[in-house]
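CHAIN AND CONFORMATION:

***
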Amino acid sequence: MATHVSGAGREQGRAAAVSPWVTGWTAAAAVLMVFGGIMAIFAGIAAIANDPVFVVNDDFVYAFNLTGWGWVHLLLGVVIAIAGVALFTGAPWARAVGVVLAGLSMIANFLWLPYAPVWSIVLIVVDGFIIWALCSPRRESAT
């Protein structure tokens, strides 16, 4: 005896096929984006205030004014935190924007290496994880 599955039943079957790991990785990326954005805001504020915690090295090829870098990190941090919150809402544009912003953050942190080397390396790795988590294949796109 053949059973007929209505359109609503097919939609429920597709929703059940979504891997919890993928959803978990996207949620993890969102948490890391919000946290990283907030920390970038704090680093930006400290750099704008010319906090003595930063070591200024004038011999770096990509030397830039500490206050200028502070504004870059402050603005980038705000946008990254907003995109991270948007990932929690399930906004379709948030994944693509998250990948772009994580890439920009990787570049900014590479150029920030002489001022805060350990912090920059940690954030480069975190941004790489965010990009991986947001670009990983989704089960719902395969069905």
